[in-house]
Structures are given as C-alpha cells and as structure tokens.
Amino acid sequence: MKTIRIKPGLLAAATIPFLMGCPKSKNLAPELDTETESSVYTSFANYVISDIEMACSFMGENAYNTTFYHDYPGSASGNTGTVTVVRDNTGTMMPVNGVLLPHDQLVMAWNNTRCLDGNFRGKGSIFMYVPQLDMNGQPTNNRYCRDHGFQGRISLTNYKVNGWLIELYDPNAPAYLYNTLESPSYSNASTKLTWRFAGKFKFTHPTDPNKNMIWEGELFKTLDNTSNPQVFAASHQSAITWSLAVVSYYGKVNGSVPQIDKEGKVTPNVPFSLTIDKRTPLIRDFQCSAERVSGVAFAAAGGITQHKDEHHPFREGTATLKVGDYYPRQIYYGNEGTQDLAPQCDEVGVVLIKGVTYAVNFQK
Predict the structure, then answer these.
(1) Cα distances (angstroms) measured from residue 259 to each of 14, 36, 42, 144, 263
(2) pLDDT, tens digit, 9 for 90 and up, residues 22-51
(3) Distance CA 257, CA 42 (A)
(4) What does DSSP assign to residue 61?
(5) Contacts of 307 (CB under 8 A, 6+ apart)
(6) Domain segments of the chain as ranges
(7) Phi, psi (5° rounding) for residue 354?
(8) Distance CA 325, CA 267 (A)
C-alpha cells in the first residue's frame, strides 16, 4: 500500500490562504433605539379618549354652554359649524342586564365644526344614556355625574377629530363612565370626586390605514380641586364648574399603534401597553392653555373680542409605554421629566429610552 507524503512547505502554503480568507469579527456598537413616534401616537389616542370622557362629563352635569367643544364664535355659517347639545328626559328604553329600563339620552353633535379647543370635528355625535330607574324599578337619583352611583353608557356616531374617525371597536359594546364615590355622604374637604371610564375604540387615520390605532382600557379620573367651592359647591347640588377644574388620570391601556422609524417607514398595528401610575398621573388644568389667546372674532355689538385658547393638554405626568418587543419607554408630559421645571401647558414632551432622552412634539 502506497503512503502519500505531503511536504511541510506545501501544507503551509495551503493553510495561509485559508487563514487569510477568514474575516476577523468586529465589535460593533448596537444600533440606538430612537423610535418615538409610537409614543406620540399613543399619547394622541389617550388625549382624544380623555376629551370624549370630558364631553360626557359636561353633558352629565347639564353644563352645555361652557364646554371646550363648542363652535368657535363667528365660525358657524347656517347649519355648518354648529354644535347641538340635547338632554332628553322622556325615558329612552335601554337594556340593563336583559331588562329594559328608561334612560335619559344626552347627545352632543357637531356639524363640521371648528371648536374652541382648536380642533375640527366633523359631522358626528357622542351619545350617553343614564338610567332613570334601578333594577327594582326605583328612581336612581343619580342623574348627574357628580352623584354617587352615576353611570353613563356611551356610544359614538361618525365622530371625527381633525379627520380621524373614532368609533367603538364593537358597536354592541358601549363605553362607560362611572362615578366611583364610595358613599353619597361625604365632605368636600376630605373627599375628592372620582370616576372610572372604560371602553374599546378604534381610530381610523384620515389618509393612511397603516397608521390606524386601537385603544382599549380604563382611566380613573380625580377632580383634584374638589374642595374649591368655585369648582364644586359644598351642598353637592350645583353642577361642577369644569372650566375651573384640575383633573388627573391614571390607569392601564392596551391596543395597537404604528411605529415609524427615522426614514419614515411605518410598521402598522404594533401591540402596546401603556401604564399611568397613580403616583404620577396625567394632569389637565382647564385654566392652563398653550396659548393665552386663540384668536379674535367680531362681537355682535361691534368691535373685536379676544377668545381664550381652550386647548388644554396634559400639563404634567408620566406614562410607561411597552410597544412590540422594544425596550419600555418613559413618556414625560409638561415638565419634560425635570422635577425642577414648573409644569408647562404645551405639546412638548420627552421620551426616555435606555437612559437617553428624546424631545417630542405631541399631536393636538
């Protein structure tokens, strides 16, 4: 049997090209996670939901003429640009646990309206139904959202904000607004009015279906200045003056939201969860606006009248956003995460990702 011998020089020559052909691994720094648009879109959805809740709170107090959602003076022309608010106490029959009971029907309807908060609302409506009788056929005595035991059943019809269509995710599953006071007897000095708002909604973008969103969750609202008699009388018999109110929200939200990278590529329907801790709630101060004056209009008696800006963004607060498989984000509103900075009523905030902060402009 022949033995094949390989000369040492030939082995070395064959090995050198092989070794040279193996590229050395490089220690590349991981690409920074800079995606903040999902935080902006989630914040916008949360803000729109808080506006729906506030519109219902105005209706629930019979405070129809002081809302931020009325038409801007001088903007209406004929029927276009108008807002209609109706409380029908004739007893609309609605099912409760399979039993038909009479309800008050409260409606706020827009007709392609430029509103005091600077937003444009299309031809749509918000409906809220409030029971007049309990399951035993007795009067509920809680027709107003300030009342212990109040509950409003909410639905939307073609409701649009700046072109976005906001609908119930399931038309047969309404949203609800509950008063969560533990007792009808309380003192304003020691107890704050509280509510719970819950539901599931879908948001349809005006032009790009890749930017559609789903919002599902519950928000707990507190009237922080309940003890102020100008906001809520100690007798509990007068309507809440929402225009002077300071309210805060905490809760948990899930749904889907678009992610948009720095090149503008949209990844649609990314699942998210948003947590707002009770210790750092999102606060809206209805005396606080981004601009002191939103514009002027001609007065009926002649001359020009200035109008206060009624857009009231989240003044302060923090939320934790988990979107897709990305690292959790902290979203700071108002004071941009700086404790020494006084809360600001503006659309500017900060998103914190892995210790790095990114300034963002929230949608109005």
Answers:
(1) 52, 8, 10, 40, 11
(2) 555 566 556 778 999 999 999 999 999 999
(3) 7
(4) T
(5) 72, 73, 116, 293, 294, 295, 296, 297
(6) 33-279
(7) 50, 45
(8) 13
